[in-house]
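pinned: reference chain
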Amino acid sequence: MLIVAAGVVAGLMVLTWVVSLLVHDASIVDIIWGAAFVVVTAAVAALADGVGARRVLLLVMVAVWGLRLSGYLARRNLGHGEDYRYQAMRKRYGERFGLISLVVVFGLQGVLVWVVSLPVQLAVSADRPAGLGPLAALGVLLWLVGLFFEAVGDAQLARFKADPANQGQVMDQGLWRLTRHPNYFGDFCVWWGIFLVAAETGPGRFGVIGPLVMSFLLLRVSGVAMLEKTIGKRRPGYAEYVARTSAFFPRPPKAVPAD
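pinned: its structure tokens
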């Protein structure tokens, strides 16, 4: 299944890259991110011969998460031009950007999709245990918590941004009172939940590298760390928000004494 998954990811990312050249917008890779996991999971679940209930459960978990994420990003991003990150790369590399983006944008994201989805790839072929147990139930519960934080957090932020009165302001309402990044915390829970379902099988336990990599990305690379490099300069009052609000794991806001 590992080779099948790698081939599916490679084909999907090359196709997405070709489309990005035609539309002159590398940002579509962000929209494809969630859907790529669905395509990979559907392929390996269809071809594997492991326990049917586990294959279906993993497919449903990945599909609900991935399709919601891709749909949300499509509604948010399409029609607004290429993301500033890719514009900066395009300006830096000039005519070479097309070929370079195949490797450093689409290729890299393809590798990450393959690595993060390892629990699913390894678990779908397992024929033991024959049914779903308490670890799978715990995984589904954690996945539901994650999906709630991600979906509700995204909806709350979209509603906040849609109000012109909030332009340039800090979103500190709803789930955003408990954590500065409810959507990233949700992603974290979703993939650890998927891993717990997979970990009921012997092979699935070796897929722990998947949620570990996702956690590292969310906390240290493209999630919290990247976003907070510049947001303090763009949002008045963000320093105060940081002082009272957890960066990642939800908790009630701290009481910050007035100056």
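why pinned: The chain has a mean pLDDT of 91. The radius of gyration is 19 Å.
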